[in-house]
Amino acid sequence: MSTVKRKSRREKAAETRVRMVEAALEVFGESGYSGTRMADIATRAGVAVQTLYFTFHTKPELLQACYEHAVLGPDKVPPMATPEIRAAFTARSGRAALRSFVEGNTRITARAAAIDEVARAASHEPEALEVRRHSEELRRDGYRTVVLHVGERFGLRAGLDVESATDLLLTLAGGATYLSLRSYGWSDDRYAEWLADLLAVQLLRRPGRAT
């Protein structure tokens, strides 16, 4: 006779935390950062508002948790540890490296673009803008690592330094560009193919064929 294993208190708490974060992502997306109340999120998550405050303490802390949940994904894998972005560092051409990066980054952007837009739009909320600033710093660090590798291994376009190349990558591979093209009906695959080709032209000294 089979028995159902009971979930531990820690497992139940982890599931409740995820449910609250996912509820926050929904409500932030619907009402914006300023228009969202912690009570609204608690109601959506099916928990007491005291439980929400006990776990996250403040709305900015919850916003930070939303960023982390979106960026890391359900398996909690840091961006630079994803198989696709790791493959960028073993690719045999600059174009192939950028294509691998784009494949992994598009999956992350698809999850994180909406909450990033919420934070960016909260122009009169200093704490929300600080959460976004921190996220952008982490993104710049990761993107710069990719640019450094591509530049050292394959060469950057003439006249393009590492910081300027990182600026381009941040802009072209950012959530705003992704959401804009998605609003025009582009699929993730079409967006990724376009972005990989564009980055090869904008960043590489001599764009080569993917291998």
Structure description:
The chain is mostly helical. The protein has 2 domains: 9-57, Arc Repressor Mutant, subunit A; 59-203, Tetracycline Repressor, domain 2 (Orthogonal Bundle), CATH 1.10.357. The protein is 73% helix and 0% strand. The protein is built from 10 helices and no strands. The protein has helices at residues 9-35, 38-45, 49-56, 59-72, 83-87, 94-121, 126-154, 162-172, 175-183, 188-203. Helix 4 (59-72) packs parallel to helix 7 and helix 6 (94-121) packs antiparallel against helix 7. The termini are far apart. The mean pLDDT is 94.
Give a short synopsis of this structure.
The protein has 211 residues and is mainly α.
Helix count from the secondary structure assignment: 10
Low-confidence stretches: none
Strand content range:
under 5%
List the secondary-structure elements in sequence, H or E.
Answer: HHHHHHHHHH
CATH class of the largest domain: Mainly Alpha
Q: Could you tell me the radius of gyration in angstroms?
A: 20 Å
Proportion in helices: over 70%
Q: Would you tell me which CATH topology of the largest domain applies?
A: Tetracycline Repressor, domain 2
